[in-house]
């Protein structure tokens, strides 16, 4: 239905109203207003689909999901086209996009989280301990109703939890980028999507470090750089929480750390030391395979104590659940 046809339809409908009782007229007017709004929305959705047609040929469901996630990003001209999928994952997919007029780089990456119902949040409880949940703008949740909804795991609460997870990734990248860490510059967060620097070129995205073989000299240089980044993160009160050669990109001899939704706060999560040590062990697994002698415990302990943290008792992170009162009591006793 075109816009004109639609307004003709509503005029016709309103003419009918003149012949009815005043009360019925009010109700019908309200109804007609509602229908008019719905119709406008429907037309808008169709317009978006017409205006925003991207090069990437997505499957039907994926296309609807992309349109829904990227429309505002497109309207703000952070992107002007979706060129191809870089990588599809369980929780999120990353797309190579042509940058919009707002941007100076030719390309950007859009990381789009799957709709909540289709995702299996990495057992997020262990990471959330000591973190305040964030709202869609990345500010701390302040409404008790939202906090309760999360704790009770209502459907709305799960939605808020999902948004908080994405907001942590974006806010962490902003903070670390400003602090000079090797992370993609983040540009925008809307709904399910984060727009950031794309690492790679038009024909191929940067490989993950795990798939790269290094020369001995380069390996030492890059390990030092990873340790430097862990240091910058601690200085900014965060631990990656899922650091390994799978979440480090390699491009033109330089590294970029990615994938931050699960960051852990070193001062307020009782398993922080274990999680930090686990990151160091995984990093060393890769660099040892590249021929370096690499002592994960020493690297982790040096950084940890440098920032004034105490090496705590071993707490197995998988037993931590912030919503479990027994776990809460156990930590409070520590
Ligand atoms: N900024 C980026 N530039 C190029 N490729 C990226 C970028 N961010 C992510 N990727 C690619 O997408 C993959 C998935 O991204 P990641 O943030 O690790 O999400 P997850 O592991 O949770 O699916 C990465 O392994 C990498 O191959
Ligand atoms: Mg990853």
Task: Output the keywords.
two-stranded antiparallel sheet, Phosphorylase Kinase, domain 1, Transferase(Phosphotransferase), domain 1, 13% strand, binds magnesium ion, alpha+beta, disordered C terminus, globular, binds adenosine-5'-diphosphate, 3 domains, single chain, 334 residues, five-stranded antiparallel β-sheet
Question: How would you describe this protein?
Answer:
With 334 residues, this protein is an alpha+beta fold. It has three domains: 3-48; 54-197, Phosphorylase Kinase, domain 1 (2-Layer Sandwich), CATH 3.30.200.20; 209-333, Transferase(Phosphotransferase) domain 1 (Transferase(Phosphotransferase), domain 1, Orthogonal Bundle), CATH 1.10.510.10. It has ten helices and seven strands. It has helices spanning 3-17, 22-51, 60-75, 125-128, 144-152, 155-178, 216-235, 272-289, 296-306, 325-333, and strands spanning 79-88, 92-99, 107-113, 186-190, 193-197, 248-251, 254-257. β1 and β2 form a beta hairpin. The longest helix is centred in the N-terminal third of the chain and has 30 residues, at 22-51. The protein starts with a helix and ends with a helix. 32% of the residues are buried.
């Amino acid at each position: 239905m075109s816009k004109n046809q639609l307004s003709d339809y509503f005029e016709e409908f309103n003419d009918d109203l003149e012949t009815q009782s005043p009360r019925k007229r009010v109700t019908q007017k309200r109804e007609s207003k509602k229908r008019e709004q719905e119709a406008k929305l429907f037309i808008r959705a169709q317009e978006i689909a017409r205006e925003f047609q991207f090069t990437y040929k997505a499957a039907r469901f994926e296309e609807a999901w992309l349109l829904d996630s990227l429309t505002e990003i497109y309207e703000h001209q952070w992107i002007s086209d979706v060129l191809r999928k870089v990588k599809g994952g369980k929780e999120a997919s990353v797309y190579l996009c042509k940058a919009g007029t707002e941007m100076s780089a030719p390309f950007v990456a859009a990381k789009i989280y799957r709709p909540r119902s289709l995702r299996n949040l990495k057992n997020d409880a262990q990471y959330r301990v000591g973190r305040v949940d964030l709202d869609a703008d990345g500010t701390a949740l302040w409404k008790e109703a939202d906090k309760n909804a999360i704790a009770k795991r209502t459907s709305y609460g799960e939605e808020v939890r999902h948004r908080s997870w994405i907001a942590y990734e974006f806010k962490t990248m902003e903070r670390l980028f400003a602090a000079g860490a090797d992370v993609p510059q983040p540009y925008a967060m809307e709904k399910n999507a984060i727009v950031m620097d794309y690492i790679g070129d038009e024909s191929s995205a940067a490989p993950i470090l795990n798939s790269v073989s290094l020369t001995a000299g380069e390996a030492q240089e890059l390990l030092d750089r990873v340790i430097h980044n862990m240091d910058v993160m601690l200085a900014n009160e965060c631990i990656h929480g899922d650091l390994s050669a799978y979440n480090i990109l390699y491009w033109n001899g330089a590294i970029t750390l990615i994938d931050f939704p699960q960051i852990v706060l070193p001062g307020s999560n009782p398993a922080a030391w274990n999680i930090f040590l686990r990151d160091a062990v995984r990093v060393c697994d890769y660099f040892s395979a590249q021929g370096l002698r690499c002592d994960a415990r020493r690297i982790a302990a040096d950084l940890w104590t440098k920032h004034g943290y105490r090496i705590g008792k071993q707490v197995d992170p998988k037993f931590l659940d912030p919503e479990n009162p027994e776990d809460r009591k156990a930590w409070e006793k520590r």
